[in-house]
């Protein structure tokens, strides 16, 4: 089977894009081949295109250019590897693929069957393509902070970056779990955060996060590493914990090499963990790192069948115009950026 990838030819501040057709290998045991319908460009893709994470992701073959980015999958099963029993050719699926040189910005990909779920009725391919990667990372962050359906009920949760992709999804999940969410966002997104169930809004242009009292059961930082140590100190005594997706793990290794990066990472993490422990007595502090996760996909699939979980789409373009989607995301424009992967650009 031939696949056409949207390749980034080399890491650069202004990366260059190229459509490359190649022979896709047969799916290995446990994998299926997908004829891709839609995928998305996430903030991580734009950072990786500039060289971010090269050293660590290089372990998975995902650091050497040229390569295709992308983790989100919406498409149709077109071939089965051995030992795949729960999918058949022709199934419409959505899901995830871990970082590799063969990212999902392509017309065809191989992916592990266990990270695919049936496409729910009534959700468009574009809407679906924006969700799996962000939803999974968000769920891993909730878990890292000690939040689940039981612990979240009545808990006071501070969400920084609440109007971003991860933040909006966290608001949707946490309000469904009856948590009391304090959302930090900018003036233009106050109403959005209210509509997603936040019980308190901090407009970061009017109120300084630094004025917040230490009163939270959990903190989720989806916005800026520089604030992380201070945010840890906003936990109340006996709090659940704190998770951040904006930690410097990959950047440390890029910048300082394996040994220097490892030492710096231990230092950075200890510094924030000890601020959290001092405030709350809790040692639960997580640096969330995306990886495909079956439990998170099950929660997403279940919610979608009930009409829940959505992110606004700001741009939908064919794979051949993928550069526009990278620009949309790297400039922080409103809404997610979706790539339609087949030449016909079908949106069924
Ligand atoms: N570690 C991992 O495996 C992993 C996985 C997924 C995502 N991430 C990272 O997690 C972050 C969130 O992802 P996302 O998809 O939600 O990104 P996003 O959609 O770009 O949202 C980021 C949000 O953070 C806000 N923000 C940025 N800088 C801020 C600051 N200094 N103070 C307060 N708010 C600030 C932005 O607000 P404005 O719009 O006002 O700027 C935006 O609402 C990104 O940095 C992403 O790269 C990490």
Can you put this structure into words, describing what you see?
The chain is an alpha/beta fold. The chain folds into 2 domains: 2-130 and 311-340, Quinone Oxidoreductase, Chain A, domain 1; 134-287, 3-Layer(aba) Sandwich (Rossmann fold). It has 11 helices and 16 strands. The protein has helices at 43-48, 54-57, 125-129, 132-144, 149-152, 165-176, 190-195, 228-232, 249-280, 294-305, 322-330, and strands at 2-8, 17-23, 31-41, 67-68, 72-80, 92-96, 108-112, 116-118, 156-160, 180-185, 200-203, 218-221, 241-244, 285-287, 313-318, 336-340. The strands form 3 sheets. Strands 3, 5, 6, 7, 8, 15 and 16 form a 7-stranded mixed beta sheet that branches. Strands 11-10-9-12-13-14 form a 6-stranded parallel beta sheet, with helices on both faces. Strands 2-1-4 form a 3-stranded antiparallel beta sheet, with no helix packed on it. A hairpin with an 8-residue loop joins strand 1 (2-8) and strand 2. It is globular and about 60 Å long. The model has no long low-confidence stretch (mean pLDDT 94). Residues 42-44, 134, 137, 160-161, 163-167, 186, 204, 222-224, 245-246, 288-290, 332 line the site of NADP nicotinamide-adenine-dinucleotide phosphate.
């Amino acid at each position: 089977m031939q696949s056409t990838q949207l390749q980034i030819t080399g890491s650069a501040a202004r990366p260059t894009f190229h459509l490359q057709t190649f022979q896709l290998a047969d799916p290995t045991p446990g994998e299926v081949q997908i004829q891709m319908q839609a995928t998305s460009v996430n903030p991580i893709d734009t950072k990786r295109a500039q060289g971010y994470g090269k050293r660590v992701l290089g372990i998975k073959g995902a650091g050497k250019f040229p390569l295709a980015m992308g983790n989100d999958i919406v498409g149709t099963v077109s071939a089965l590897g051995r030992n795949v029993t729960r999918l058949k050719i022709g199934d419409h699926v959505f899901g995830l693929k871990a970082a590799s040189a063969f990212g999902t910005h392509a017309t065809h990909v191989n992916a592990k069957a266990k990270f695919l779920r049936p496409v729910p009725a009534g959700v468009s391919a574009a809407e679906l393509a924006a969700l799996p990667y962000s939803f999974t990372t968000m769920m891993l962050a909730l878990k890292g902070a000690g939040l689940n359906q039981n612990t979240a009920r009545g808990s006071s949760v501070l969400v920084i970056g609440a109007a971003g992709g991860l933040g909006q999804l966290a608001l949707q999940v946490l309000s469904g779990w009856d948590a009391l969410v304090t959302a930090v966002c900018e003036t233009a997104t106050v109403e959005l955060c209210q509509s997603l169930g936040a019980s308190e809004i901090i407009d970061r242009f009017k109120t300084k996060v630094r004025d917040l009292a230490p009163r939270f059961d959990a903190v989720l930082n989806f916005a800026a590493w520089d604030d992380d140590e201070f945010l840890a100190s906003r936990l109340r005594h006996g709090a659940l914990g704190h998770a951040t997706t904006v930690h410097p793990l990959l950047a440390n290794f890029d910048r300082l090499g394996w040994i220097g990066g490892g030492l710096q990472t231990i230092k950075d993490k200890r510094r924030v963990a000890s601020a959290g422990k001092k405030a709350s007595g809790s040692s639960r502090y997580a640096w969330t790192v995306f990886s495909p996760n079956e439990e998170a996909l099950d929660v997403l699939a279940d919610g979608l069948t009930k009409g829940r979980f959505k992110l606004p789409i700001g741009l939908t373009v064919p794979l051949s115009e993928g550069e526009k989607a990278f620009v949309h995301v790297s400039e922080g424009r409103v809404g997610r950026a979706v790539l339609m992967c087949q030449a016909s650009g079908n949106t069924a």
